[in-house]
Amino acid sequence: MKSEDHENEHVENKEGNLFGYRRLGIAQEFENVMGVKIKKVKIHVSLGKNLATLVEIIALNHILEQRGYNAAAEFENALIKAMKHAESK
Asked: CB 3.0–4.6 Å: which of 2, 41, 58, 64 could bond 69 by disulfide?
């Protein structure tokens, strides 16, 4: 891992992101590869994680986004709604 990667993770931690990366995927990152803008997805891998399943889910999420459905935004909206409902009780 390059030293600037550690610096970026440290900055993200200061912003309140758990474990130094965004878990919902609402904010998208892109990288320019040979003049083509490519969506960048960070996967933090550890022992016991099924990498094939993670990649398959990322690919499915990309297809859904291309069709206009943003699962992360839908989840965030449902979560906020549930939290507001719980506060009103």
From this structure: 64
How many residues in the chain? 89
Q: Structure pTM?
A: 0.56
- Which residue type occupies 49? K
Domain ranges of the chain: 3-88
3-state secondary structure of 13: helix
Q: pLDDT by residue (tens digit) across 37-81?
A: 988 888 878 888 888 998 998 899 889 999 999 888 888 889 889
Q: What is the CATH number of domain 3-88?
A: 3.40.50.300
**C-alpha–C-alpha distance, residues 56 and 74, integer Å:** 20
Read off the tokens for 88.
Answer: 């009103």
Q: What is the pLDDT of residues 6-23, one digit of tens each?
A: 434 433 444 444 444 456
